[in-house]
Amino acid sequence: MKLPRIALCLALIPALAHSAPLSKEHKILFFGKDDRVLEKPERAPWRSVGQLETRSRTICTGTLVAPDVVLTAGHCFVDEKGRFDPATSFTVGLWGDEYTALSRIKEVQVDKAFLKGLIRKRDGLYIPPRIAPRDFAFVRLATPLGNSQGTVPVFSGDAQALKTLLSRQNWTITQGGYPVDDQRHLRAHHGCKATALRGDGRLTHRCDTLEGNSGSPIFIIDAKGQATIVAVQSSAPPAARRKLEDNMSVSAPVFQKALQAFIAKSAKK
Question: Using CA atoms, how far apart are residues 250 and 235, in angstroms rounded to an integer?
Fold first, then answer.
């Protein structure tokens, strides 16, 4: 079975380009139709969701989960040749030509097993299934933007507790980020469906995502409007396999302990 390519989920696109037209392949990746809506990042949890840029000008999405810590995807920091590609900035409140705040990056932590397990082939980088659940990363900001923008809690229970929560919510989730077709505006898919929590910790779902959404949050939003991150967006299948495969994210129980250790390390400095 062919392994999923990083190119399927990694946004190798110029930083802060206005937009890119939707290709036929992009349209196929939507689940029947494009259900995304514009979400102005003025209120919680959206004001905590921002855009990451790397040294090679790759664009991904991330979320403030502590005053100076952003949660995102690991593959965002690997270039096409398999080299580590560090983040340079994180921008919040991006809306058209304006934004609320920007911070430079002090540190990026990507799972070592994930980096070591990537397979390099002539036509690109591949993420084998054995390391796909390790596709997460933590970013430390030079400026604690979470103090002004707010932070979003990450689900702290185990896999069984997450299944119980998803069942209680009828497996309804929300996803949002800065996609390739509109890099200057946040777009969200409300009320989309999670479809399975795999044994390896990956959560499959049917939220409409494109390149640029890598690292974006998968929320459960309760009756009071409080959001909790239950997963981070990882990948989508090629258009030819859309009817066979759902989108893929990494659930919080996989990375929660590592994230808390990263946050605690920041607090000691």
Answer: 9
| Catalytic site includes residue 205 | no
Catalytic-residue membership of 23: no
Catalytic site residue from 214, 234, 235, 251:
214
Q: pLDDT digit string (tens) for 168-180?
A: 999 999 999 999 8
Which positions ≥6 away from 199 have C-beta within 8 Å? none
* C-alpha neighbours within 13 Å on the C-beta side of residue 52: 38
DSSP state of 201: S
Q: Are 65 and 263 in contact (CB under 8 A)?
A: yes
Which residues have CB under 8 Å from 32's CB, separation 6+?
none
pTM: 0.89
Which of 26, 48, 75, 189 is an active site residue?
A: 75
Q: Which residue is associated with the tokens 């069984």?
A: 160
